[in-house]
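Hey, quick one: can you model this chain's 3D structure?
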Amino acid sequence: MAGTTNFNLPQDLLDYLKVLDDFIETEIRPLERQDDNIRFFDHRREDARTDWDRDGLPNEEWEELLFEAKRRADRAGHFRYPLPKEFGGQNGSNLSMAVIREHFATKGLGLHNDLQNEHSIVGNNVGVLLMLAYGTEAQKADWVEDLLQGRKRFSFGITEPDHGSDATHMETTAVREGDDWIINGEKTWNTGIHKASHDLIFARTSGKAGDGFGITCFLVPTETAGFKVEEYLWTFNMPTDHAHISLKDVRVPHSTILGEEGRGLQVVQHFFNENRIRQAASSLGAAQYCINEAVQYAKERKPFGKALASNQGIQFPLVELQTQCEMLRALIYKTAWMMDEYGAFSVSDKVSMCNYWANRLCCNAADQAMQVHGGIGYSRYKAFEHIYRHHRRYRITEGAEEIQMRRVAGYMFGFMSQKAPKGVRED
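Sure thing. Here's the predicted structure for all 427 residues.
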């Protein structure tokens, strides 16, 4: 034979998972259990997390608990893991991040990793990555450490009420007046805007509807005159921090542009694939958690004098799901590895495959776990309903399944190129 291929995960990564597990047990689990913080994860979770008298926003105590977990993770050197070493990170790879996110989600609900808030003790830090890649030196100095410390945050104002998946037809406009820009329009699903100091507003500055170029992103302070939160949109899984906002003659200086004028969509595209492979890994982990719980329960539950696990009607659906998990895991790991080796845009088709299939698989696994558990599975005393309601969101918000399949078809049939869009750096 010419050679062999090793499919084992790197030993240093496996060792790091043990370090993270120890940190969770010594620092995060005790915090989760003290002062009745478990109410945010047990059957009371949705009610405890939600401030029903304040537009359904996240409860302040809930958000402070998440922030404390991040502070502890940052002190321990974990929170900044994927960032460059000069910013306190460990240069974590796409493969490592995918493995870590799957590992965390397989543990179930907990303070170590709560996807409803995009919270994890190993942070994704997309805002920081965008700032490092596209910010001016002045912007980086002003933003990077404040973002990591939680002193500043920005939300993403991309989606509009009448334009969802197709951002190229956005109606929000920005017109230049001297050294300023005047922005008018509306945005919806602005996640995290209730705590954001700024909103990254995408507006058309040139070109025509449907053009990929001519859209610019602006870091708009949320206190700017004419910027208004119209409402918070209640969702399938509460609490909500997703706002519909309006901009009426909002004036910002030219220096608020992030990236190049007219290339705003390319800024966002830069980290689409990294985000989506990590989110796919999280959905895979959540699916595996549901399967594991269903298998264990089927062994223990003995209606009519024999274990549920002895029935093929219980076995076979779980076998199907486990088979899909194994195949998806191989594809996610391979795709993340290829992103590290050849660049994020080299595997855009596979990222879309991983993402839409993982999100669908997670919902199917949660549904089957409910069925195996019967009434208790449908109740809030088990995590399945929460997992289903949350991950159902990702079948839309990470790029709808249909959009992901359309991307795959575009690469299959030669309508799209597996190259970085013009203006997007692969590094």
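One thing worth noting: The radius of gyration is 22 Å.
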